[in-house]
Amino acid sequence: MDKIDIKICAEIHNGLTAPERGNQNYLFLSPVDEKYAPGYLTVIKRPMDLGTLKKNLDRDVYASRHEFYSDCQLIFENALLYNKDIPDNKFVLDPARSMMRAFEKLRKAAERKAARLSGGTVKADSASGSNSSTTGKKKISIKVKRKKSTTDISKADEPPKKKPKLKLKMSSDKSSFSKSLSNAQKVEDLPMTLSRRAQCYKIYNSLKRRRPTECRWFLKPVTDPMIVRDYKEKIKSPMDLGTISQKLDKNKYNTVGEFVDDLRLVASNCLIYNTTINDSFRPVAVDFLTTTEELCRYFILKHEAPKKPYRSILYCWVECMKVIDEAIKLTNPDDGHQTAWFFLHPVNYFCGGQWPDGYLDKIEKPIDLGCVVKNLILGVYDSVDEFVRDCKLVTENCRKAYQGDASNASMVDKATRLQMMMEKHLNQLVIFDKSDKGTKAREKASKTMTMKRPDKEFLKGILKELRAATYTDKVAKITESATLHFDKPVDTTIFTDYTKYVDTPMDLETIAKKIDQGVYVTAEDFEYDVSLVFKNCERYNLPKKNVHMLTIGKHTAKLFRKMFAEKMAAVGGGTARRPTLPTAANRGAGGKKRPPSPLPAADSKTVKRVSILVKNTAPKTASKTATKMMPSSLTGKSINKPKIGGNKAGKKLVKKPMKLPSDPNEPVPMHVAIAQIKESYPNRRQAKELVGWEGECLKFFKQLMKHPWVSAERPKYIFHVPVPILFPEIRVSYAEKIKNPMDLTTAESKLLQGVYENAEEFVRDIALVFANAIEFNKEGHDLGEGMSCAYYEASTHLLKYSRWISLEI
Question: The pTM is what?
Fold first, then answer.
């Protein structure tokens, strides 16, 4: 190839691998791994991917750019060919078609450029050079029907009439593939224009204002070191509201559908990861998604009708999620553990990332409940029957893979019980779908929410209050109007490059005029314009590093968000207050609140404090007071402490001595171990003496200890004392894995003694208790050991629960 061809091919490759196409091209960047695509090399005779394409281009393999075009198109034809018999693989089919269209646009632009550079014209058929015989794709027959011409030859010089329409008759091998194509054609890839991006901003801002309790969990990526490794193993496509906002700001969304998919992905990831029984995060995700769908219908579908810019979610998706929730609640009759645990994630997740030997030979379509949830929320299912079919396939795959295998008889038994339970709910769902109630629910789901037009005086009041705000420079100590620089339109005769950075100028004076003219149909429209003023400030001043203007802009934007949320809350247009945890005092208040625990709170009995005296065998100089006892000071001698005081009869009561085990390898009773730890911190203060952040930490600890899993006198899970004291048989293995042991009693005693310098240190130690349990039990959990699985899941839940309630400190 000459230099022109090489340059053109490189531009096409760069266009296909550009970051803005990251949602489509990630499937085609590297060769297909047959572990995840069984039989791929049998169907596809000549594999190709964008990485190999680049290598071939760098090695000068192609004799002309048309050979490059052929290989480029082959990438996406292979994807369509392999997945055509799997109609549920829309997550592959849709990106492949989208990338095919992107390639055609880039190719046509490249041909026009080549014609200009060479001084020639573009051939109509210059192109792809794709070979249908290479891919094994069946040819499409085209039947052209033309009306017989009655035009006389003498009229040949007359202007040509309209060409007759071409009727295309397309044939395909599989009806399912045709169905997949027809479904895909219903959704139009509407490009992200300025007006559509504005609608997306309105959805984002309204969602944060209307659902602050739910959105606070999704504002940032999951970076907690205690759970991030497990999270990345389960969630392959992380997403959060902060990332969505950044992608909007940087214009990284090519279509409206990509934006909606990312919003749905936030809820989907939450539901896939949080799968403990009665997990309190699940209703949070459902409420978040419900509001998201309502806002998307109002701000996108309503404006784009009759076009369909994104895939529709099933009208009864909430009912479908209830079926999944019931499956999660099912427990084993013998040990009480979660029956569905091994069906919540792909089989290879439980096998160190590898599929079991022969599994993919037996199972044509591996699927799990997590995959079902993702398909449901992302709109992959077009009907209830498709959802029901995949739910049944989850357990059928297990029975098919392990039937007759004695070593996996327990798995078959779990699959059978799970299938029986799910069939009951799935049958009810099918009946509902075909009933009058289902018809009414379908009609209700298609309706758009209504929004009241904001009052002009209300908006003017917000604008007036915003204009009255001030800003004080922390360095210069100068106070000025916060909106001084945003009140009038920017003078482009002075700032000549302003339009280079800002595509939609906006200012407060223009907003005031739009209020008078009644332009704002919703409060979100007004909110978007005001926010746009400060976003424009950031877009223009950030590249120029104008720190002063950036600081004023961020300060005023924050003031406006807070002010607007409070004003809207006052008129019933959203919630502005910071969400609080339900307590005994506010549990009866109105409004939906997130439960503090996946199980109902129980009144825990207070464990009696046990003080321990060590019998002193030293000389007479020894003190008569009790000697504090460290965990290593077990001597095997009787320990007692007389109870000072008397009963109503005046008789003194003496507590019977407690005998400690003489063998250090024998476990110590939990109440004795707790007493040992407390006595090792002799300067502990009374709870009423703790004030400030220490008092808040103690309230947090008491709230945690009310959790029914750790509150009872004989708790279900023990995190109260060092593990080796209760389980000396694992002392060595525990010390090898856990370098910084911690327990709840030690953390409480350190708080009462004043060891911690700030609240973060105390919260970190509490989190360390559950993180250690997760780390120690992970190996057994992966192997399916009952006790390890129980402690692993309980620790994961309690870690998230403790993180949640610690936000109130």
Answer: 0.55
